[in-house]
Amino acid sequence: MKSKTILLIAIVVLFGFGCGPDADDRITEKIIYDVQIKNTGANSDWWKNNLPGPARDKLVKCLMDGAKSGDVIVRDENGTAMNSEEAANIGIETASMTFQHPEPPYNSFDTIVRSEIDYRDITRIRFMEEWYFDDRHFLIDKKVIAIAPVVENYGPDGKFRGYEALFWVFEE
Prior knowledge:
Helix content is 23%, strand content 38%. It is an alpha+beta fold. The protein has one domain. β2 and β3 form a beta hairpin.
């Protein structure tokens, strides 16, 4: 009975520690790509390129709330940590703008406009990963290093400029 227990423990240890990716099998140290989590097209099928609403909302709210509250350490792409003020202001923009009164004498006036990204504006998650390839079994193993919520970026003229990562959360 004792020898069977030892044999069982040995098998568990061998499989537990012997099946992970080997550093020699690494094919890339860092690959970054976006995954769309919310369909933005009205004519697209809702089940494609999409996370179900409750799952998406939970993930995105957890990232955003954790970042703003300081519960999650947020960093830039290079791994440099943001300070608490930067983290609290993620997705918030303030701009000083000049407007003209709509009625005579049509004087100009300055005002500060504050805009804040809503968690529903996040349509993608950006992944930073290491990839490993097992050439004996033709398997790819991925290790997530960091994730970032991504928003669409528009210029002052309203033209789409691309996608922007708000911050990164690295595996600690």
